[in-house]
Amino acid sequence: MPFSHHSHSGQFCPGHAKDSLEEVIQLAIAKKFQVFCLTEHMPRGKEDFYPEETSLVANEAAYFQEAQRLREKYADQIKILIGFEIDWIRPESRTLIEASLARHPFEFFMGSVHHTLTIPIDYDREMYVQARDLAGGTDEQLFEVYFDEQYQMLQQLKPLVVGHFDLIRLKSDDPERSFTQWPAVWERILRNLDFVASYGGLLELNSAALRKGMSEPFPTISAEERTPTTDFIEQGIRQTFAKEPSQVEWKDASGTTLGPYAALPHGSPSLSPSLDKRELAVLAVMTEYDAPYVLYAHSEIALAAGLSREQIQQAVDGMVPDGLDEQEAMVYSLALKLATLRR
């Protein structure tokens, strides 16, 4: 079930990518992606333009129009979601994000932080050092500020997917450093991960880090951070993927846990419901919300957990699926009731 929820084109995001938006989609089709989310950058204030940028609002309008055309053109080959990647720079960024959502019926946005203390931290080394000096002069101090500002973004927006969670590594003195070396930074990371988990968010596995010279994608668990809980989570992932072939890589050659799975060891597996019960609860909630990407992703997970497509469809339609045991039916019914009451 190959999918991506973070992409850029050289046509609408020249500083980040190359090729036209259509060429990007054609490549996704050639790679046999089933779902592909378009996420060009949102407009920002002129004071935050990168050197190559001009009118971002006009760029956004042209992007949305072209994305709609391409979605219709390739509808029989790939499912395309049209969204954007946010830039959380300061609290006022929320106003700009809401303006984008008001201008166009976007289906999705990627929650990202590319600035710390209003200065880009992944554009070049010079800007990174400038931000670090403002933070106090050390990588550790800058990392603390970065994760605090990320936490502010998470609280304000609760993005469905969090982009390149630990992007702050990229231009630092030691991008491969284990965060556990800095207790104050590690504490902030765990806080942010707990918050993402509390509202049901996801972390993306972003391979751009490899293209930019790092040995692992964003985010990861280093060898020093491995625990018995990590092994427990990996066992569950292995069992899940064994039920249905997948092209998703969840470990690298050294055995390090990659991507969104890196966040899981910070939860409590002993308190977690089984995968099928958890997915039944998610599907119940989806009866009350229009979230195509979440529905797609969790339908595939539910299928891998042992539910049939007929049961998944019944769950999405608001009916207790046939063939559930007493506990499974109770989980679904309770989640459905809670979701209905919340609305």
TrEMBL record:
<dbReference type="InterPro" id="IPR004013">
    <property type="entry name" value="PHP_dom"/>
</dbReference>
<keyword id="KW-0028">Amino-acid biosynthesis</keyword>
<feature type="domain" description="PHP">
    <location>
        <begin position="5"/>
        <end position="208"/>
    </location>
</feature>
<keyword id="KW-0368">Histidine biosynthesis</keyword>
<comment type="similarity">
    <text>Belongs to the PHP hydrolase family. HisK subfamily.</text>
</comment>
<keyword id="KW-0378">Hydrolase</keyword>
<dbReference type="Pfam" id="PF02811">
    <property type="entry name" value="PHP"/>
</dbReference>
<comment type="pathway">
    <text>Amino-acid biosynthesis; L-histidine biosynthesis; L-histidine from 5-phospho-alpha-D-ribose 1-diphosphate: step 8/9.</text>
</comment>
<dbReference type="GO" id="GO:0000105">
    <property type="term" value="P:L-histidine biosynthetic process"/>
</dbReference>
<dbReference type="InterPro" id="IPR016195">
    <property type="entry name" value="Pol/histidinol_Pase-like"/>
</dbReference>
<dbReference type="GO" id="GO:0005737">
    <property type="term" value="C:cytoplasm"/>
</dbReference>
<protein>
    <recommendedName>
        <fullName>Histidinol-phosphatase</fullName>
        <ecNumber>3.1.3.15</ecNumber>
    </recommendedName>
</protein>
<dbReference type="InterPro" id="IPR029032">
    <property type="entry name" value="AhpD-like"/>
</dbReference>
<dbReference type="GO" id="GO:0004401">
    <property type="term" value="F:histidinol-phosphatase activity"/>
</dbReference>
<dbReference type="InterPro" id="IPR010140">
    <property type="entry name" value="Histidinol_P_phosphatase_HisJ"/>
</dbReference>
